[in-house]
UniProtKB/TrEMBL annotation:
Protein name: Ribosome-associated protein
GO molecular function, one term: translation release factor activity
Region (Disordered): 105-140
Gene Ontology biological process terms in this record: rescue of stalled ribosome
Domain of life: Bacteria
Biased composition (Basic residues): 127-140
Species name: Sphingomonas abaci
Domain Prokaryotic-type class I peptide chain release factors, residue spans: 23-39
Amino acid sequence: MVAIPVTRAIWIDSEELHESYTRASGPGGQHVNTTDSAVLLRFDVANSPSLPDAVKARLAVLAGSRLTREGVLVLRSEGARSQLLNRQEVRERLVELIREATIVPKKRRPTKPTRASQTRRVEGKARRSAVKAGRGKVRD
């Protein structure tokens, strides 16, 4: 049982991760045809005891189409020729995604433009209007 650190407060138990290995696509010749180097990582976000509910909700939004209806996050890596490198890469992506979900977005406080900025805007429009009005036909 190995725990993967995400933040100071959040650690994921490696037993929560389910990895399967398949043949990778793309170039690589005979090597790619004979080795299961692609890694498919599944992490059950919905039933994970390691994540707080708020992080689960933000992670669901961030994951988008990578999250199944059952709440399982599916990540795939097949960039490297080595299964080990693909495992490391897909785990790093998972940790980074969870770290991103731990950041609480700031609430936007609606503001009104100042009276001076409104005045400047209207004066600028009037100046522009005068410039365009001066481009008319010349009358004799």
